[in-house]
C-alpha cells in the first residue's frame, strides 16, 4: 500500500491538462484522501508545456516533493521534463498509437494505452485524458467509481450523455490496463477513508473570505495569477446583494473600488505585480482620504512582464513602500491556503477599524495550489465583523463642529476619526487628496498639516497596541537553529522538518503572516545560535526587514527560479546553510 502517492499529467496547452488534474484531485478528496496540487504552465497565450501534479495521502500533505510515481505523458517533453523525479517504481502512461515514439527509461514501467482509440469508442477523442485517468485508477488500486462524482460535477451542465460517455471512457482505460498488464509489482493500493474534505486553492479561499467578511463590491482587471479571485466572486457576490465590475485597466479598478468603499460598502480589488505598479497612483488617495480598502496582490515573477505564470515573492517592498509621500498601511501575508480565508476577513476588519489601505499579499504558488481541508477549517460562525468607528444617527452629534458640520477627519487620541456613509443625517462631508482640516477642507496651515499627518500615522501605533501581530511556530521550540519564513513557504518548511529530524538536526520554525506591523522577533533571534530566513526572491526583502529590526545579520535561503520550494529540497538547503559562516556585519 502506498500511503503517499505522486501523480502528474503533462502535455501541451490546450490538451485539457488542468481539467484532467482537477477531476482526479476532486475524486481523491471525495475518497477521503488529502490532496496537494502543483501546476506548471507556460507564460504565453497559446502553446507551451503544461503539467498538473498531485500529491495525495491519507495524512495531511502540505508540499510537493521530488518524486513522481504515476505520470500521464501526452508528449515526449512531459517525460523529459520529469525525468529527475521519476524512479524505478514509476509507471508512465502514454499512447503508443500516436505519431511520437515514447522514449522511456528501461527501469521504469511503460504502460502503453490507446487513449485516443478507446476515447473514440466511448464517444469522442476529446475524452482521451479521462481514459488515462481510468488507467491510473487501475494502476494505483483506486476505485474508478470515485471519478463518477467528479465527472458529474465537471460535465453535468453539458447533459447526461456527456457525463455517461466520460464514465464509459474512464472504465475503458481501467479495463484495458487490467486485461493487458500485470502491474502488481508496483505495489500501489490507494487507501480510502470516510473523511469529507473541502478542496480549494488560495484565490478561492480569498474570494470565500471576502464574501464571509461582507465584501459587496469588487472591481478588477484580468491579470495572471489574480484573475480567479474575480472569477470566484462573479455569480456568488450577487447572491448577497453585491457586484463585480471588470474595469478597463488596473488604475480604473482601484479607483472604482475606492468609490465603492467611500459609498459605505466593504470593497476590494486584486491584481499582480504589473497591476500594482499602475494602482500605486491611488494608494496615497486611499490613505489621505482615510478610506478603508483591501488590495490583494497575488505575486508573480517580475520585474516588468517577467514570467507571469511563475512563482515569486518579489513585491514585498512595493507593498511596504509603494506610493509617494508617507502612506500608513497594513500588509498581511497569509501563510497557507486556509489562512487566505481568515486573513482576508481580518484584512477587511483592519481596513475599517483603522480606515487605511490593507495589502493582502499572496503569491502564485498559493493562488493556484489546491489543497484539502476539513469543512470545520472554514467555520462561518467564527467569523467576526468589526466596522470600527462607523457612526449611526444617534452618535453623529458628538462629531459635529459648532456650525453643525461633520468632522470626518477629527483629530483623536488614537488617530481614528469617526466615519459616516452617504445618506446619514448630518454626516455630509468631503475628502480630497489635498491636505485638509478636520472637515476635509483643503489647507496648507502648518499646524493642521502636522496634526493630520500625526493623526494618520498614530493609527498604526494604535493598531500595534490593540491587535495581536503574532506568528505561528512549529518544530522544536528549544532548538538552537531558527528558520523564519513568510507567505507560502510554510507548508514546505513544515514537511522539511521531517527530513531534518531524520538527520538529527533540530529546528525551530517561525512563520510570519504580518509584514507591517510585524511581530518583534528580537528575543527569538537572540536565543538562537543560527537564524535563517527563507523566501522566494533574489534580494532577501523580508530578511532585510528582520536585520533592520534586530540589528543582527541572518543567513538567507533565496529561490527565484520561478518554482516554489519543495520540502526535501528545502531540508537540503537548510542543512547546507547551517554550515556556512554568518555574513559579515
Question: How much is the radius of gyration in Å?
Answer: 26 Å
- Biggest sheet, in brief? 7 strands, mixed
- Going by CATH, the homologous superfamily of the largest domain would be Pyruvate-ferredoxin oxidoreductase, PFOR, domain III
Shape: globular
| Total domain modules | 4
Briefly note the structural class of the backbone.
alpha/beta
N→C terminal distance:
52 Å
Query: What is the CATH architecture descriptor of the largest domain?
Result: 3-Layer(aba) Sandwich
- Unreliable residue stretches: none
- By DSSP, the count of extended strands is 20
Tell me the CATH topology of the largest domain.
Answer: Pyruvate-ferredoxin Oxidoreductase, domain 3
Strand order of the largest sheet: 9-8-10-11-13-12-18
Strand content: 15-25%
The quaternary state of the protein chains shown equals single chain
Helix content: 25-40%
What is the overall pLDDT average? 95
Number of separate helices: 18
Short description:
The protein is an alpha/beta fold and 585 residues long.
Could you please describe the fold and organization of this structure?
With 585 residues, the chain is an alpha/beta fold. The model has no long low-confidence stretch (mean pLDDT 95). It is 36% helix and 20% strand. Strands 9-8-10-11-13-12-18 form a seven-stranded mixed β-sheet, sandwiched between helices. A six-stranded mixed β-sheet has the order 2-3-1-4-5-6. The chain has a five-stranded mixed β-sheet with strand order 15-17-16-19-20, sandwiched between helices. Helix 7 packs across helix 8. The protein is globular and about 90 Å long. It has four domains: 193 residues, Pyruvate-ferredoxin oxidoreductase, PFOR, domain III (Pyruvate-ferredoxin Oxidoreductase, domain 3), CATH 3.40.920; 183 residues, Rossmann fold (3-Layer(aba) Sandwich), CATH 3.40.50; 71 residues, no CATH class; 108 residues, 3-Layer(aba) Sandwich (Rossmann fold). This is 2-oxoglutarate synthase subunit KorA. Heterotetramer of the KorA, KorB, KorC and KorD subunits. It is an enzyme of class 1 (oxidoreductase). Pfam families: POR, POR_N. It comes from Natrinema limicola JCM 13563.
Amino acid at each position: 500500500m502506498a500511503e503517499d502517492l505522486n501523480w502528474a499529467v503533462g502535455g501541451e496547452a490546450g490538451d485539457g491538462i488542468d481539467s484532467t488534474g482537477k477531476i482526479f484531485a476532486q475524486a481523491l478528496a471525495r475518497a477521503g484522501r488529502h490532496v496537494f496540487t502543483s501546476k506548471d504552465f507556460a507564460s504565453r497565450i497559446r502553446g507551451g508545456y503544461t503539467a498538473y501534479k498531485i500529491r495525495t495521502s491519507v495524512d495531511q500533505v502540505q508540499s510537493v516533493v521530488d518524486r513522481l510515481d504515476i505520470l500521464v505523458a501526452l508528449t515526449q517533453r512531459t517525460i523529459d521534463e520529469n525525468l529527475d523525479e521519476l524512479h524505478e517504481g514509476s509507471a508512465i502512461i502514454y499512447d503508443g498509437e500516436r505519431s511520437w515514439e515514447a522514449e522511456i527509461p528501461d527501469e521504469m514501467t511503460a504502460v502503453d494505452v490507446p487513449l485516443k482509440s478507446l476515447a473514440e469508442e466511448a464517444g469522442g477523442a476529446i475524452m482521451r485524458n479521462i481514459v488515462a485517468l481510468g488507467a491510473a485508477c487501475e494502476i494505483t488500486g483506486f476505485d474508478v467509481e470515485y471519478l463518477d462524482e467528479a465527472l458529474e460535477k465537471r460535465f453535468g451542465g453539458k447533459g447526461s450523455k456527456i457525463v455517461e460517455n466520460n464514465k464509459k471512457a474512464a472504465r475503458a482505460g481501467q479495463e484495458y490496463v487490467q486485461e493487458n498488464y500485470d502491474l502488481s509489482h508496483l505495489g500501489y493500493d490507494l487507501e480510502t477513508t470516510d473523511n469529507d474534505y473541502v478542496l480549494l486553492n488560495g484565490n478561492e479561499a480569498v474570494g470565500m473570505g471576502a464574501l464571509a467578511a461582507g465584501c459587496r463590491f469588487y472591481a478588477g482587471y484580468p491579470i495572471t495569477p489574480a484573475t480567479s479571485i474575480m472569477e470566484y466572486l462573479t455569480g456568488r457576490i450577487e447572491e448577497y446583494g453585491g457586484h463585480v465590475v471588470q474595469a478597463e485597466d488596473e488604475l480604473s479598478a482601484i479607483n472604482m473600488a475606492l468609490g465603492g468603499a467611500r459609498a459605505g460598502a466593504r470593497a476590494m480589488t486584486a491584481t499582480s505585480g504589473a497591476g500594482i505598479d499602475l494602482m500605486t497612483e491611488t494608494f496615497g488617495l486611499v490613505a489621505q482620504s482615510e478610506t478603508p480598502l483591501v488590495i490583494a496582490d497575488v505575486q508573480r515573477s517580475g520585474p516588468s512582464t517577467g514570467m507571469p505564470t511563475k512563482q515569486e515573492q518579489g513585491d514585498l517592498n512595493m507593498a511596504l513602500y509603494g506610493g509617494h509621500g508617507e502612506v500608513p498601511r497594513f500588509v498581511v501575508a497569509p501563510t497557507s491556503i486556509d489562512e487566505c480565508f481568515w486573513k482576508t476577513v481580518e484584512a477587511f476588519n483592519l481596513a475599517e477599524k483603522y480606515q487605511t489601505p490593507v495589502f493582502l499579499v499572496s503569491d502564485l504558488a498559493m493562488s493556484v495550489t489546491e489543497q484539502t481541508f476539513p469543512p470545520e477549517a472554514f467555520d462561518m460562525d467564527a467569523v467576526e465583523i468589526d466596522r470600527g468607528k462607523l457612526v449611526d444617527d444617534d452618535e453623529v452629534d458628538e462629531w459635529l463642529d459648532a456650525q453643525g458640520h461633520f468632522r470626518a477627519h477629527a483629530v483623536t487620541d488614537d488617530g481614528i476619526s469617526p466615519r459616516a456613509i452617504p445618506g446619514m443625517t448630518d454626516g455630509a462631508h468631503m475628502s480630497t487628496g489635498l491636505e485638509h482640516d478636520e472637515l476635509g477642507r483643503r489647507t496648507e496651515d502648518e499646524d493642521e498639516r502636522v496634526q493630520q499627518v500625526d493623526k494618520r500615522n498614530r493609527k498604526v501605533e494604535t493598531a500595534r497596541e490593540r491587535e495581536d501581530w503574532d506568528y505561528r511556530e512549529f518544530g522544536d521550540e528549544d532548538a538552537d537553529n531558527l528558520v523564519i519564513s513568510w507567505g507560502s513557504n510554510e507548508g514546505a518548511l513544515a514537511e522539511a522538518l521531517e527530513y531534518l529530524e531524520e538527520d538529527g538536526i533540530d529546528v525551530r520554525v517561525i512563520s510570519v503572516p504580518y509584514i507591517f506591523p510585524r511581530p518583534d522577533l528580537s528575543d527569538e533571534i537572540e536565543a538562537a545560535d543560527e537564524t535563517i530566513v527563507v523566501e522566494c526572491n533574489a534580494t532577501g526583502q523580508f530578511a532585510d526587514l528582520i536585520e533592520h529590526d534586530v540589528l543582527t545579520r541572518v543567513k538567507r535561503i533565496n529561490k527565484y527560479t520561478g518554482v516554489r520550494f519543495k520540502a526535501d529540497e528545502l531540508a537540503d538547503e537548510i542543512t547546507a546553510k547551517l554550515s556556512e559562516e554568518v555574513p559579515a556585519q
